[in-house]
Amino acid sequence: MEPWQERVVEEAKELDEKIVALKGMILSQEFRSLPEEDRLLLKEQFIAMVEFQGILCKRIVRFQ
Counting Cβ atoms within 10 Å, is residue 52 exposed (0-12), middle (13-18) or buried (19+)? Predict the structure, then answer.
């Protein structure tokens, strides 16, 4: 694998960890105590991160 491809794979792994952490936050009691605007922004962030993860996965599949 080329160095730039390895970086994409590493980015996908790191993003996956962040998605898991954010999902945990969204499901937490702490999340429910946040102002509505903050909750909405975190949900938007989660959706964007998942979408970006999908794009990275499509790119990784093309490496093979």
Answer: middle
